[in-house]
Amino acid sequence: METDENSERRTYRGGWIEDFLVALVFLTRLPVSLPFTFEMSAIKSACRCFPLIGLIVGGLTGTLYLMATFVGLPPWVSALLAVAAQVLLTGALHEDAIGDVADGFGGGVDKTRKLEIMRDSRMGTYGVVALILVIGLKTATIAHIDNPFTVFAVLVAAAACSRGIMTWALFLMPPAREDGLGHGSGRPELSAPLWSTAIFMGVSIAVLGNYMGAAAMLAAMIGGSLMGLVARRQIGGQTGDVLGAIQQISEIFFLLACVAALGSS
Fold first, then answer.
1. Which pTM value belongs to this model?
2. Cβ–Cβ under 8 Å, residues 120 and 245
């Protein structure tokens, strides 16, 4: 995928800064002008920076939540605004993905048909229900946390961890198509998911503490793994939509674990 056809721009050469910028352009809709062009294959290196993009998304949405609560809005309204901000920042990238996966897995009778449905831009009943549940669960869990600063920390850690888990899906799961993101990006080196894991583990423990951070990360990994296993059984591997669905499920499991940990403390 080339970000710009201007011949004066140099091509992607790798390194942490360029990988970060590629990941930022790929995972968000923030207005970023790159000084280089890149192909889809750059994702297999840039994915190590996915948790760093989560830091930005979680930090911005967490800040909005803090602002909303400080002006007197009730927790559920502030939570819904935070979730809406996530959707705007990412261009509904992951929400669209889990909707497509729900439609494909729910409505297709075989792998070919499931992949066809997932590529269809129209939203079906399964997708609508999935999005209602996803947005509802996110909003409810965020609103249930009493301390606004704890919400901020949870949003940052959840966004970083869930995006980091996508890197493992790219590494462990074969592409289900012969085209698209899963095939075009290629399988990353082991160092990419290891770096990604180190980043989101550091973030989660730093902002949530050992107990809650470890419990939430474990839950997110379980959720992402379950989604990956379902995708492997349904279509034989991963696609861009499957990666987005893994992010959403991982994030929900992370949030649920945080609420459970707070309730038991």
1. 0.93
2. no
